[in-house]
Design goal:
This protein has 108 residues and is α+β, with helices and mostly antiparallel strands. The chain contains two helices and three strands, in the order αββαβ. The radius of gyration is 24 Å and the shape is elongated.
């Protein structure tokens, strides 16, 4: 059996790495594509390509914008926009309607 070490026994001890060790944060690529550094290649913000559907994994061209907000968190001035292709328009709208979020559909 190992000896049990209590928190009070660890306080004040030196760390197990050398004092001159350099720690750099791990760089993890942004999965969502919404990171400001990726804005040139993001399909929604790129001016060279047509806007794409916001549904997960869909790369079809968007046909409409679903403009919505969460009234429990934000006032009427704060709105979010999801872009939807014809295939995902109803499923995205149903998702928002099930949560009673105010929603309007605008053509692109």
């Amino acid at each position: 059996m190992g000896r049990k070490v209590y928190r009070s026994q660890r306080v004040g001890r030196l760390p197990p790495w050398p004092p001159d060790a350099l720690f750099l944060p791990e760089v993890v690529p942004c999965r969502s594509g919404n990171h400001p550094a990726d804005h040139e290649s993001h399909p929604v913000t790129s001016s060279a390509s047509a806007p794409t559907c916001s549904a997960r994994g869909c790369r079809e061209p968007a046909a409409v914008a679903l403009v919505w907000r969460n009234p429990r968190i934000h006032g009427p001035e704060r709105e979010k926009r999801w872009l939807a292709c014809e295939r995902h328009r109803s499923s995205l709208a149903d998702f928002l309607a099930a949560r009673d979020f105010p929603l309007r559909v605008e053509p692109l």
